[in-house]
Design brief:
The protein is α/β, with parallel strands linked by helices. It has 5 domains: 127 residues, no CATH class; 71 residues, no CATH class; 79 residues, no CATH class; 89 residues, no CATH class; 65 residues, no CATH class. The strands form 3 sheets. A 4-stranded mixed beta sheet has the order 3-6-7-8. Helix 7 packs across helix 8 and helix 11 packs antiparallel against helix 12. The chain is globular and about 75 Å long. The mean pLDDT is 87.
Length: 443
């Protein structure tokens, strides 16, 4: 729901979205925002201050039979009002649950007293235990201490906390650097964190290992760019040369996962034969390990692709047959992902090729309803940007732009700028032209 708040820093009033219901299956993006600490965080359009909003939240995860509600104590809601609110939120879930999916746990949501416990239960559905969370908190505390420590104290802190300095710690450090880089006026912090990262690369065993891996990945990326793209020969060479380092091997595979196919695996098999013919049994065994890993990944990719296609077909058939399509789409938003949208687009194109006008119209209706539902869950700037991009007529665009308050235009301009950067090497010139046209209107 939309609400108006005043920025605690500059007192500027602005509208923001508050989400009170998080359904893990129907709206997985809200769960991800919750896990990332981004849900119900309002950013002031004037000064950029981020504020965590205190709001009641009901969380539902059908896969784990979990329904719980958290009402912040700072809201000071009387008990009767709390019970009424919990009943209203629960009713939204039960009303939107098909009868065959209804379960007894939905009748009585767990009432959670603290946000800490609420988040622990959400993390538990991801296999993350309170002990893991505590370790991550200890790592964040260590990073904060290192940020303000002098050189002597920092050396001591590092030696005393080597058990906390692992790959996760380096990931937290890298995320901190990237976050601060996005905010102006933090050059001193960026330099301090970069120096800390460099020191940890050279003074810790895990740091040296990660730095070596980053250098390998950098060379791999450079060579691929230099030759105009990834080749089987390049991919295989890096896989074999780094077969003894599982972390680096996995990173190379993740970076070039789109290149894993039957032909690659066949060429890897040839390398095994060459090693055996040369009498290098150790190398052959190493390459066999690489091949087995690639076969597992390839089979998983094939299985996942088939499952996604089957699920997309099942979901689309259900939406087409639903008597109330908007309601059906709302109930199935958790199943509408990139794979589904790709399948839907392909079905629209196939219907057009077959000149099946009725099916094409029905599919396009579903597509439009999905876009409308997705828009409702977008932050206001993204929703407005989406509406502007859908308008083909320049005059209509000008009229929409004229209605945008002056204080909201810089944020829209920044979003458009990001889109332009991402599309520089894209293959959709029509969309690029429309984005550039909007940029000119907002200038």
């Amino acid at each position: 729901m939309q609400t108006t708040i005043n920025c605690p820093r500059c007192q500027t009033p602005f509208q923001t979205e508050i989400f009170q219901i998080i359904d893990a299956q129907r709206q997985p993006q809200l769960k991800q925002m919750l896990l990332n600490g981004q849900l119900n965080v309002a950013s002031c359009p004037n000064c950029g201050t981020a504020t965590q909003l205190a709001a009641p939240m009901l969380y539902h995860d059908a896969e784990h039979s979990l329904l719980m509600v958290y009402v912040p104590m700072e809201l000071n809601l009387p008990l009767p009002d709390q019970e009424r609110l919990i009943g209203q939120l629960t009713k939204v879930i039960t009303d939107n649950t098909p009868p065959e999916q209804f379960r007894a746990y939905m009748l009585q949501p767990q009432t959670i007293i603290t946000m800490k416990t609420f988040m622990e239960k959400v993390y538990a559905t991801e296999g993350i235990t309170p002990e893991m969370l505590q370790r991550q908190q200890d790592q964040m505390n260590l990073l904060q201490d290192l940020m303000v420590a002098d050189k002597t104290t920092a050396v001591s802190l590092i030696q005393d906390n080597l058990n906390l300095i692992d790959e996760t710690f380096f990931a937290i450090l890298q995320n901190a650097i990237q976050s601060i880089q996005q905010m102006p006026g933090n050059d001193a912090q960026i330099i301090a964190l970069s120096n800390l990262q460099a020191r940890l690369f050279t003074t810790t065993e895990i740091g040296q290992k990660i730095e070596k891996r980053q250098m390998v990945l950098h060379r791999f990326r450079q060579e691929a760019e230099k030759q105009g793209g990834l080749s089987y020969e390049l991919f295989i060479r890096y896989l074999i040369n780094n077969a003894d380092d599982e972390g680096t091997l996995d990173a190379i595979i993740n970076m070039a996962q789109q290149g894993i196919n039957y032909q690659l695996i066949a060429q890897i098999a040839q390398e095994i034969d060459k090693a055996k013919e040369a009498g290098d049994t150790a190398k052959a065994a190493q390459i066999e390990t690489v091949r087995d890993k690639l076969v597992d990944i390839y089979e998983q990719m094939q299985t996942a692709s088939q499952e996604m296609l089957a699920q997309a077909k099942e979901t689309l058939d259900a939406l087409l047959q639903a008597p109330n399509k908007p309601q059906a789409i709302q109930q199935n938003m958790g199943r509408i992902d990139e794979a589904f949208l790709y399948y839907l687009t392909a079905e629209i194109e196939y219907a057009a090729e077959k000149q099946d006008v009725n099916r094409q119209l029905a599919l396009k209706e579903v597509q439009n309803l999905i876009m409308e539902e997705a828009e409702r869950n977008m932050p206001p700037p993204l929703r407005l940007l989406n509406q502007l991009l859908r308008v083909d007529d320049e005059q209509a665009q000008k009229e929409l732009v004229a209605q945008i308050p002056a204080e909201n235009r810089p944020e829209l301009a920044d979003l458009l700028g990001s889109m332009v950067s991402e599309m520089e090497n894209g293959n959709d010139p029509e969309l690029q032209a429309r984005v550039s046209q909007l940029q000119a209107l907002l200038a």
